[in-house]
Each structure stands twice: as structure tokens, then as C-alpha cells.
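User: I'm curious whether this sequence folds into something compact or stays loose and floppy. Could you predict its structure so I can see for myself?
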Amino acid sequence: MCGPAGAPLAGATLTLVDRYGRQKGLARAGADGVYELSAPDHDACTLVVSADGHRPRAVQVAAGSGPVPVDVTLVGAGGVRGTVRHPHTGRPVPDALVTLLDPHGRVVASATTAADGSYTLRDIAPGAYTLVAGGYPPVASGVALGPGGTHRLDLDLGHRTG
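Assistant: Here's the prediction. I'll summarize afterward.
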């Protein structure tokens, strides 16, 4: 079990599911990223791997009569945070809706700004997105998120920032 840099990913949860959706095994990766699961039959299964701060992953595995090594690398999930401000006064805008869209226009995440105009969107897969803050007038900005970490993007309503 590895994280995005190839380092062992301790504590990842691994679930083995059969073709009918029944759980066949459950394990946690050790400090060295190593895990062991036993499949009671020889059918193909799906191994679902998840860990805090990472995008989950599912891989097909064929159970055999002996150990079957399966290495899985998880990509770190990132996020975006910032502050929405009024373009003329510079004051924070509370209760503004902030929406993150993928390149196909699908909503990936959304949040409402706090009293201080701040917002945070978490557990976002790496990629290119459009961030929109509702208000009068609304504003949209492109944002590219890498694996892990949180990108900061402040928005002034009515002004395109990127």
C-alpha cells in the first residue's frame, strides 16, 4: 500500500468484495504499508482501498490457491480554500455559495462561505476545475489541483481571478 510518492501508506483500509457485493474480507495496512487478506473461495473479487486524505481506489483481483500479491497506489486528495470578498469594499461576503465544477460541468463539491467569507472544499481529486462563487455579479475562475495539499484561491465577486 503506497501513497502518491511511493511511500508506505500505514492504516489504509482494505475491503474485499465478491461479485455479488458481499464483503469477503477486511484489513488495515500496517506501518510498512503491508496487508494480508484471505478470500474464502477462488472467485474474482474487487479490492477497495481507502485512506484519509487520499482518493479511494478499486481494483479487480483473482483469488488463487495461494497468496496473490496486489500493490495499490492511492493518489492524495487535495482541496481548495479561500475567501470571497466584495469587489468594491474588500469586505468578506458571508453566505456566498462556492461551487467546484469538473471540465464536463458536473458539480464536484460546494460550500457556503462562513461569516468571515472563508470556504474550504476537501477531498478533491487532482485535475482542472472551475470554481464559481455566487453573488451579484457571480465570479468564475479556473483552478488546477495537484495530488494532496490545499490550493488557496480568493475570489472577488464580479472579477475573474484566473
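Summary: The two ends are 37 Å apart (CA to CA). Residues 102 and 136 are 23 Å apart (CA to CA).
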